[in-house]
Amino acid sequence: MFSIMVHVKCQEPSCGKDFIVVSAEEDFYKQKNLPLPDHCPACRHRQRMALRSERQLYKRNCDKCKQSMLSVYPSSAPYIVYCQKCFWENIG
Ligand SMILES: [Zn+2]
Ligand SMILES: [Zn+2]
To answer: Residue 78 C-alpha to ligand 2 middle, in angstroms?
Structure first.
């Protein structure tokens, strides 16, 4: 038994790593009529996690009044998030 390995370059711009698809996996994709993965396993894993947590709400503080609130962005996300009150004040 031998296995064919296909080198694929990860299409994630911030990654670009070469990764290997082994023949068993390649057959699987052919059988299912799926295109070969163009993202490395780490990036695919990250994408799956991102999809899964899409609707998750995080507890964080408003970046203006520091009041605790829920947001779709965790406090580690590089976004400025206002609570609803501050949001409307900011627009007006
Ligand atoms: Zn990658
Ligand atoms: Zn606020």
So the answer is: 17
For the chain, the structural domain boundaries read 5-52, 58-91
**57 CA to middle of ligand 2, Å?**
17
* Per-residue model confidence as pLDDT tens digits over 16-63: 999 998 888 888 888 888 888 889 999 999 888 877 766 778 899 999
Non-local CB neighbours of 13 within 8 Å, separated by 6+ positions? none
Residue with tokens 């163009």: 38
**Nearest listed ligand to the Cα of residue 17:** 1
